[in-house]
Amino acid sequence: METKEVIGWVGMLLATFWAGIHMLVAGAVVNVYILFGAFVGMFVALAIISGLIFLLNWKKYYLPNLVFWLIMLLTLFVGYVQYIRKGNINALFTNILAEITLVIDIIQILLALAIWKVDKE
What we know:
Blueprint: H1 3-29, H2 34-56, H3 62-85, H4 96-120
Helix pairs in contact: 1-2, 1-4, 2-3, 3-4
């Protein structure tokens, strides 16, 4: 296997795992905030598309894929800032799903950069 294929498979598996975690989140919040549940559901669909971009090596979508994962990392940090503003300073270490998502977001950004660089060579 080429390096690009390995990066593609790892990126696809992590994107699918990320989508699975967020399906749980969307299902949990849809009873409370329907709009927020739909918003998270939209990001689940985009994460699955991102996994396909990784797997099928669609060159013209590498930059949008990278931007998508940067936006996901930014929205996660915005959520943490809101928790901290409300006085819950330990918010980063209280939700295991958020911690896993944080790690996956960072790895996906690195993988998106890596596949872009490897494909240019």
